[in-house]
Design brief:
alpha/beta; four-stranded antiparallel beta sheet; binds adenosine-5'-diphosphate; binds magnesium ion
């Protein structure tokens, strides 16, 4: 469903040149949640922006349902639901208006848009505040609206960029339920986060990104076998060559 091949992005020129994403390749199947993990600056957001077509790749390509972002950007965009921690809010609109507005952006026919709005509003329990201005919503209510909004056009692919950033435990549980729901619907999902511990319970397969490069990939079982480490945090430290601060004699 999602295919990324040798995807590369460089920023800056000359001595300031930085390869933010370096020949990145991986695939995500329908119903699968792929965790693209790495510290701040690893290249996660840059990767998603290239898949979405917001940023042109310097090399390689991304494909969604067989459509290449560089060749058919509109075909790709309409097949993706995008959730970002920094998603804008529309203080003067009501959640219902936001849902219908996004349905319109995605060219969902009006009747179908109303059906989808009702369906996602029910799924994410937006009904009690569906007609309130967004300015009056709590953080949790806004987050549920953002998650619902990304599904309004029923896309086969979901990209979630640090969706748990700034959330408390209850907020994070909503993401857990959301991931289960979209995977059960057969969507292919990429979730990025720098919180490796949290990713463990959200995704089926993981790619560990370090300085724009995929340093290891697999299910938790595969990664454990390959690295001899138990958790994602330890694996990452080992693969990135970061010495364990608690180990003796490393200084
Ligand atoms: N528009 C840009 N211009 C220059 N450098 C950028 C730009 N966007 C991202 N970068 C750099 O690319 C690297 C990867 O950034 P990003 O993809 O945002 O990382 P992540 O999302 O994993 O935290 C960082 O070093 C960042 O500073
Ligand atoms: Mg980022």
């Amino acid at each position: 469903m999602i295919r990324i091949h040798a995807l590369t992005k460089r920023f800056g020129v000359g001595r300031d040149e930085l390869t933010a994403v370096d020949r990145l390749s991986f695939t995500v199947a329908p119903g699968e949640a792929y965790g693209l993990l790495g510290p701040n600056g690893a290249g996660k957001t840059t990767t998603l922006r290239m898949v979405l077509g917001l940023l042109a790749a310097d090399d390689g390509f991304a494909e969604v349902a067989g459509f290449r972002t560089s060749d058919t950007p509109d075909e790709v965009k309409r097949r993706i639901g995008f959730v970002s921690a920094s998603a804008g809010v529309y203080p003067w609109l009501t959640p219902r208006e936001v849902l219908l507005y996004f349905a319109d952006l995605y060219e969902v026919p009006p009747r179908r848009a109303r059906e989808r709005a009702e369906s996602v509003a029910s799924l994410f329990r937006l009904e009690p505040f569906l007609h309130q201005r967004c300015a009056t919503l709590s953080t949790g209510q806004r987050q549920r609206l953002n998650l619902a909004r990304a599904l309004i056009h029923d896309p086969p692919v979901m990209l979630l960029d640090e969706p748990t950033r700034g959330l408390d435990v209850i907020g994070s549980q909503i993401i857990v339920d959301y991931m289960r729901h979209v995977c059960a619907e057969g969507k292919a999902v990429i979730l990025t986060t720098h919180r490796l511990d949290e990713a463990q319970r959200l995704c089926h397969r993981f790619g560990l990104l370090h300085h724009g490069r995929l340093v290891q990939e697999g299910t938790l079982t595969e990664l454990r076998a390959a690295t001899g480490c138990d958790g994602l945090v330890d694996m990452f430290m080992k693969l990135a060559g970061i010495p364990d601060p608690l180990a003796n004699g490393s200084a």
